[in-house]
Amino acid sequence: MKKLLNMSIGVGVAALFCLSGGASAQQAAFTSAPVDVFAGPAPDYPVVSQLPQGLQVTIYGCVAGYTWCDVAVPNLRGWVDASALSYPYQGSNVPIPTYGATIGLPIVAFSLGAYWGNYYHGQPWYRDQGRWINHEAPRPGPGYGHPPPQPYGGHPPGPPRGNEGNGRPPGAPQGNYGRAPGPGVNHEEARPEHRGSAEEHGHPPPQ
Predict the structure, then answer these.
(1) How do residues 116-165 score in pLDDT, each as one tens digit?
(2) Residues near 141 by beta carbon (within 8 Å), at least 6 away in sequence
(3) Alpha-carbon distance 89 to 103, whole Å?
(4) Position 19 in a domain
(5) What range does the domain containing 32 cover?
(6) Which CATH number does the domain housing residue 67 bear?
(7) pLDDT value at residue 25
(8) Looking at the 3D structure of the chain, how many domains does it have?
(9) Which distant-in-sequence residues (6+ apart) come within 8 Å of 96 by Cβ?
(10) What angle do CA 122, 128, 109 make, to 5 degrees?
């Protein structure tokens, strides 16, 4: 009897642990804009529904990079673009793609067969799984695995390179670059004018 009681207590503790773990894996967020719900983590999966702005959703996890998240509302489950989700964090609503790791949202993998079998069995496109079964997994978004980018605080950019400097190649002089010389322009070095004496011009010298 004592052994049976201990087993019952152990099963109850294990069940409680599983329930608490499942609850902690779910996070409440809000839609920051109207967003479509897709049957997978990409915009070319079938559209399941659309959510209005400001609706609370439950996030069950996101793909690596926090670009797409698996969400649920009453009687609906699907994937939404994470850029349309915000999470209340430290007194403000923060974007999921930037703060997903900080918040602690779990990274999940998408299995089309299992997911569709659980949630989309009655959809008209359910039997057309072969069209998406080999869909490439979403790539991590920019900045994944790194802290959010900081404002630029370096040196100002240098002068333009190559042929970006007003149509002149590097080192070309300023001025009429690329123009033909005007009529009568002599490229030889200017020489001082020689006036000569009065006798040379056929005039008598002044008295």
Answers:
(1) 999 999 999 999 998 888 777 665 444 333 333 333 233 333 343 444 44
(2) 65, 66, 67, 97
(3) 8
(4) no
(5) 27-132
(6) 2.30.30.40
(7) 59
(8) 1
(9) 29, 59, 62, 66, 69, 82, 83, 85, 86, 87, 103, 105
(10) 85
